[in-house]
């Protein structure tokens, strides 16, 4: 099954969410679309089990977003650009460096009580052949206007509970 390598919480004032493929242009990083989000951020690194693949993880998270929210941006394989850029410049997690053909990235919003929660998921088969998923969750501060999905439906209070995030790793084992 999958195991959690670590979880860290950051309450920095602002967090950058990448909503496009980062590109290197004359040695500087260019991101066409991004969002600066306030809130508490939780980053977790999962190691997938032997029986799981990066493709399985991609399918799992895409269906998760379809059930509980919506995807703002996603990419797979070489369409995500350089794995090195994601590892070192976006997530600051060197373990995520791997082959550009073995990666995916999904970012979007899911329901969480009356608040919005941004989720970003980066999966990669790294240089050591470990299959890793880096899950980042930012819960927006309470008191913001009620969070609505792009289709106009207001989300109900119990669409996503805290334990759903930890249940993701259990579901991945299945």
Which key features would you list for this structure?
174 residues, alpha+beta, 3 helices, 43% strand, globular
Model description:
By secondary structure, this protein is of the alpha+beta class. The chain has helices at 54-68, 83-90, 162-173, and strands at 3-10, 15-18, 23-25, 28-30, 34-37, 40-47, 69-76, 98-112, 115-126, 131-139. The strands form three sheets. Strands 1-6-10-9-8-7 form a six-stranded antiparallel beta sheet, sandwiched between helices. It has a two-stranded antiparallel sheet with strand order 2-5. Strands 3-4 form a two-stranded antiparallel sheet. The protein is globular and about 40 Å long.
Helical content band: 10-25%
Instruction: Show unreliable segments.
Output: 144-162
Largest sheet: 6 strands, antiparallel
Query: Which class of secondary structure composition applies to the elements?
Result: alpha+beta
Counting DSSP H or I runs of 4 or more residues, the number of helices is 3
Task: Give the CA-CA distance, first to last residue.
Answer: 8 Å
Strand tally is: 10
Brief characterization of the structure:
By secondary structure, the chain is an alpha+beta fold. The chain has 3 helices and 10 strands.
Topology (elements, then pairings):
Elements: E1 3-10, E2 15-18, E3 23-25, E4 28-30, E5 34-37, E6 40-47, H1 54-68, E7 69-76, H2 83-90, E8 98-112, E9 115-126, E10 131-139, H3 162-173
Antiparallel strand pairs: 1-6, 2-5, 3-4, 6-10, 7-8, 8-9, 9-10
């Amino acid at each position: 099954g999958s195991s959690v390598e670590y979880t860290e919480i950051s309450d920095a004032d602002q967090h950058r969410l990448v909503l496009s493929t980062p590109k290197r242009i004359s040695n500087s990083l260019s991101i066409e679309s991004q969002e600066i989000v306030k809130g508490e951020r939780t980053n977790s690194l999962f190691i997938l089990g032997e029986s799981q693949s990066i493709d399985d993880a991609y399918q799992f998270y895409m269906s998760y977003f379809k059930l509980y929210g919506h995807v703002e941006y996603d990419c797979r394989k070489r369409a995500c650009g350089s794995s090195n850029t994601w590892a070192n410049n976006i997530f600051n997690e060197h373990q995520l460096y791997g082959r550009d053909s073995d990666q995916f990235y999904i970012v979007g919003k899911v329901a969480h009580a009356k608040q919005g929660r941004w989720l970003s998921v980066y999966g990669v088969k790294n240089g050591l052949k470990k299959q890793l998923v880096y899950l980042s969750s930012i819960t927006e501060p309470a008191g913001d206007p009620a969070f609505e999905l792009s289709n106009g439906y207001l989300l109900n209070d119990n669409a996503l509970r805290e334990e759903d995030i930890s249940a993701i790793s259990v579901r991945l084992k299945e």
